[in-house]
């Protein structure tokens, strides 16, 4: 499904994105290695086992990136001019290997662009929930979108 143009969104509109995604050990290992994040809690099973969590924690920047990735097909594919910012990123519950994450999005702010009349600004609140219904991550993503031509 292609993303929506600025003028197709409504304030308060909500979407639950599909598919959901089950996080694997490979996801966590490769993402941590690619980003040079060598935090033992992400990579060392024994160090993680000795932590208060008792198991490997999935790299939270992977979780953040997954939220964006899971959301874009329904929100911004083909209509995005630019991501303008990411704000209020919080991870209230850790993500573990084997968790299945679902992304939910809500339009929390909209405004016309003053400097670009053919575009508008939308602020999405993205939330990832795990299979237990817990919020693993929430954030605000501000985007500049094209308006529908015609």
List the helices and strands and how they pair.
Elements: E1 14-16, E2 21-22, H1 25-34, H2 40-43, H3 45-50, H4 60-75, E3 80-90, E4 100-112, E5 119-129, E6 135-146
Antiparallel strand pairs: 1-4, 2-4, 3-6, 4-5, 5-6
Describe the structure.
- The protein is of the alpha+beta class and 150 residues long.
- The protein has one domain: Thiol Ester Dehydrase, Chain A, CATH 3.10.129.
- The protein contains 4 helices and 6 strands.
- Strands 1, 2, 3, 4, 5 and 6 form a 6-stranded antiparallel sheet that branches.
Give the mean pLDDT.
Answer: 96
CA-CA gap between termini = 21 Å
Strand percentage lies at 25-35%
Q: From N to C, what is the helix and strand string? A: EEHHHHEEEE
Largest sheet, strands/sense/barrel: 6 strands, antiparallel
Level-2 CATH architecture: Roll
CATH superfamily: Hotdog Thioesterase
Rounded radius of gyration (Å): 17 Å
The CATH class turns out to be: Alpha Beta
Helix-strand category: alpha+beta
- Record field, number of beta strands: 6
Report the CATH topology name: Thiol Ester Dehydrase, Chain A
Percent of residues in helical segments?
A: 10-25%
Looking at this protein, list some descriptive labels:
HotDog_dom_sf; 6-stranded antiparallel beta sheet; Acyl dehydratase; Thiol Ester Dehydrase, Chain A; MaoC-like_dom; MCH/BMMD; about 35% strand; about 150 residues
